Amino acid sequence: MTRSSNPIATVLLLLATACADSRPPGSDVEALRANEALWARMLEAEDTRGAGGAGTTPLVEGLRHAEPVMRRIAVRAIGRLERDSLGPLIMPLLADPSPAVRAEAANALGQVSGPALAGAARSALRERITAESEPAILGVLAESLGRLPHDDSAGVALTVTTLAGLADRAAPLSPSTDSLKLGVARGLYFLARQPAGRGAVGEPGLAALRRLATDTVSGEASPSVNAQRIRTAAAATLVATGRATTSDLRLILGDPDPFVRREAVAGLATIDEGDTAANLVRSALDDPSPVVRYEALRVDARVNAVPPCAAALRAVSDSDTHVALLAIDRLATGCGGDAANLLLDSIAATLPAPDAPLTADWHRPAQAAAALAGVDPARARPHIAALEQSRNPFVRMRAARAAMLTLSGATLHRLASDADANVRTEAVRGLSRVEGHVADAVYIAQLNESDDSQLLQAAAAALAGTPDSRAAVALLDALDRLTERGRDTERDARIAIIDRLSELGDATHATRLARRADDYDPRVAERASETVERWTGERPAPSPRPAPADSLPTLEQIEELDRARVTIEMEDRTRITVRLFAFIAPTNAWRFARLARAGYYDGLTFHRVAPNFVIQGGSPNANEYAGDGPFSRDEVGLVGNWRGTIGLSTRGRDTGDAQLYINLADNVRLDHEYTVFGEVTSDLDAIHGILEGAVIRRISID
User: Fold this and answer.
1) Which of 622, 667, 619, 617 is nearest to 642 (CA)?
2) Residue 588 pLDDT > 50
3) Tens digits of residue pLDDT in 484-504
4) What is the Cα–Cα distance from 641 to 193, expressed in whole angstroms?
5) Are 634 and 650 in contact (CB under 8 A)?
């Protein structure tokens, strides 16, 4: 399928075009080739966050360059440094002759502005709004204005008035102003989610949101491909304000798009009109789209539905697996009585044979057995053995959870020796609850034998308050072992170990821990120094020695990636085609491509599936804490987390480890926090059909 035939690609292309220079598309690349040396220096300055030998000098040079593309890249990079002090460098570019530069400058100002700069930044954005004529740039200005920190109701009211005025300018149904309407809706969203903005969006803002959320419902549908995104963002924002009414939500529930209807269903949980909300939820439970049915089932439990669990009992047989799994979890609350327990028992009995292929349909029976363990342990116990014997580690993880709920210590001890680290993690967590420090030898064994970050964190947590004198040495040994591996992405485990050492160790361990004061990771070095000081009263000065940075891509390599087609082939033969945003997120697109070509992703899984949110995968250990060794930096920007876009999973700023996620919905709340480096260009139904544990056969790049 070509890019232009894919709605997601078309939307992004229109947004990019709206904010791009008006020159022919190839001229930007030609300008970059002519200035390749500066481009490379700017990339290095951004990659080092301005801490390299040249500091921010290349970026300042780029800001003053005659070529708009160089100014655009430079101001985007300065925004990514997220320093208040750099705001004055950005503000003049709000009036740049190039619309694309103005858009990047507005976005960058929103990115760098903390409380110290917020007031000046708001004034600069409002001033530019009065002078700007391009709807696409006004949209970015509106969003950035809403993103800036607000600390009082007066500031919120002024921003709402400004954004509502922009919405009035974009009132006619016209694709030419869609980017402005989208920016207004998103700006109000970010504003409403701030502490000062919660409940403070007044009538002008609410009126604008109601109009934007119901364009299609109240009149003829807009022909723009952005129309659905506007309505989705406006509906989500209306709910986020806390002031959506039943009438608002009822109207939005009539929208032709399921993702818009889903936002209205989510809002029903906030309506203090029990019978009315419950009736609307019941209607949504029969929606033709599983996206809406899933949200309705999630909300059903929060609107005091009567009889309890009636919806879940019915949804267990839903044709969509995600809806059925949520229904099973709902029955785990015990609300369905013995009839629900019998139903869970019958579903659990359908678990595939222990040697069944990993692609076998295990999800419903394994989930049912784990759910049953929490409400009817006697019925659940016969199923635990079948879960434990499965060759599928995701099923054995359910065995550990079920064993914890049924207090089956013997099963947990066996699973604590499982070949899969995730199963052992669940067993350790279970033993910590069931046996506490009676099982300390098991936790210490994990510290002695495993290098899995998640498992080591679980073991360290389980040892809290232990009387076992062996624990401190085991923690130090594990810390030394991980440190020798030199992997940035094992930071979480090493800090968890030091935190437990702080409790269990003493001055006799200070010499060993003091070695970490010059660790390659500054956070580890700082935490180690703090702990030694706690033990001895003397603080070794942290002097971290950062590991060498990864090599950066060349301009030629980025050009090649921008033209490439990526294919993710799943074990079940599902094929997902992807386009990389190589010029927007060059270092992360390059790392992904380099690893894919080396076969890194072959045989890995999507270990996390959050329906109506994201799927996440690409971890060698199929968990949140295992990835490629070095961290990569964030490359946030103007491209949002639209449905079908691909982002970089992180655990804090600049902690990318090559794990990826794919957005199953428009996730505005992830924008400006997570890097988006590509988009799905094939049928999006394929990503909605992916279940937990789905195996990636290979990723090819042509």
Assistant:
1) 667
2) yes
3) 999 999 999 999 999 999 999
4) 17
5) yes
Query: What is the average pLDDT score of the chain?
Result: 92
Strand 694-701 relative to strand 660-663: parallel, antiparallel, unpaired? unpaired
Quote the radius of gyration of the chain (alpha carbons, Å): 27
Residue 325 is encoded by which pair of tokens?
């799994």
Q: Fold identical between 3-283 and 555-701?
A: no
Taking a C-beta distance cutoff of 8 angstroms, is the pair 567, 575 a contact? yes
Q: Which of 193-197, 424-428, 474-478 has the lowest mean pLDDT?
A: 193-197
Buried b (16+ CB within 10 A) or exposed e, 425-461: bbbbbbbbebbebebbebbbbbbeebbbbbbbbbbbe
Q: Find the Cα–Cα–Cα–Cα dihedral 587, 1, 660, 322, rounded to 10°.
A: 170
**Number of residues written out for the chain:** 702
Name the CATH superfamily housing domain 555-701: Cyclophilin-like (2.40.100.10)
Q: What span, in angstroms and rounded, lies between the C-alpha atoms of 147 and 342?
A: 50
Q: Which residues contact 28 (CB under 8 A, 6 or more apart)?
A: 20, 21, 69
Confidence of residue 5 (pLDDT cuts 50, 70, 90): very low
Note the pLDDT tens digit of each residue in 66-78. 999 999 999 999 9
Query: On the CB side of 269, how many CA atoms lie within 13 Å of its CA?
Result: 14
| pLDDT computed for residue 224 by the predictor | 59
In this prediction the pTM is: 0.94
Bridge partner list, 578? 566, 680
Tell me the domain boundaries of the chain.
3-283, 435-546, 555-701
- In this structure, are residues 79 and 90 in contact, taking their beta carbons and an 8 Å threshold? yes
158-180 residue pLDDT tens: 999 999 999 988 866 567 889 99
The domain 3-283: what is its CATH number? 1.25.10.10
191/236 Cα distance (integer angstroms): 12
Q: Which of 463, 499, 684, 491 is CA-nearest to residue 575?
A: 684
* β-strand pairing of 694-701 with 605-606: antiparallel
Indicate if the pLDDT at residue 21 is higher than 80: no
Q: Are 460 and 499 in contact (CB under 8 A)?
A: yes
Q: Give me the pLDDT at residue 175, please.
A: 72
Report how far residue 491's alpha carbon sits from residue 614's, in angstroms, rounded to the nearest whole number. Answer: 24
